[in-house]
DNA sequence: CTGCATGCAAATAGTTTGCATGACG
DNA sequence: CGTCATGCAAACTATTTGCATGCAG
């Protein structure tokens, strides 16, 4: 999505961060948000055009954008983190435990739940994370064949 | 909760796992479930009675009970995992970002959401995880003073 | 007694950091 | 041109694993 890319670049420029070719490449992938990539997969893609880039640089850019609230990090202790630059705010996820596919379902009722929580517990709620784990239709088919 | 402890021990015995003193100590702490402990905090507690126990043993017992579905693991990539043996099924959590306190709020509407998801996406849903992050009342007070 | 559990130490994986070199603005 | 970004390698942390010894059943 072009709008996301522009917004991310604007925010970087506004805070005087440099737009290097490597950063541009990483930001483009994150802005597209397709498939909720890992750092490793971003690294592999960027490497085709910038063979000298290091994973460290990808980590640094991803972390920078996370701090600017332009990327959502989905942390997984049992595997690599996934990143979403197209919807950088907390939202529900549907994760296939077979192939790792991540889908964004439509679930509107979360805002109501958050309101209910605030009055019930007195917490000042800053963020949330909702993950459903299951097997996607594609993997269900594969399993039936096997 | 005594009921949880008995159930965990029964399940271990039923599958011919040995009830060693170390295991008993770890299982007791998990069954109580108080505060959603880390492996490290379980280790420190057990060490008072069993000075020779190792973290590896705690990890092994926790992992075993997780596989028997008698402990819920809350994975945190930026910190240590937390464990809940009193409610070993997926449920919402409210986590203080200041002190790490974890509270179990009452939120019934999740089952409805899960049903909605299944018909919308075709996923076979196995589990979920819902975390709200915020600042608990205690830490809000402390911040005001500071 | 016999095999599973323990506990030490070493390995692992993902991520972060230090620092010398390079290039954006 | 000065400063920030890059990229290599080393550090770090939580967790897992290998293996010799010990103890529960």
Q: Any descriptors?
A:
three-stranded mixed β-sheet; Arc Repressor Mutant, subunit A; 146 residues; homodimer; 2 domains; two-stranded antiparallel sheet; DNA-binding; flat
CATH fold label of the largest domain in chain A = Arc Repressor Mutant, subunit A
Question: Could you say how many structural domains of chain A there are in total?
Answer: 2
Overall outline of chain A: flat
As a whole number of angstroms, the C-alpha radius of gyration of chain A is: 17 Å
Low-confidence stretches of chain A: none
CATH superfamily of the largest domain in chain A: Winged helix-like DNA-binding domain superfamily/Winged helix DNA-binding domain
SSE pattern of chain A, N- to C-terminal = HHHHEEEEHEH
Structural class of chain A: alpha+beta
Strand content of chain A: 15-25%
- What is the first-to-last residue Cα distance of chain A? 38 Å
Summarize the main sheet of chain A. Answer: 3 strands, mixed
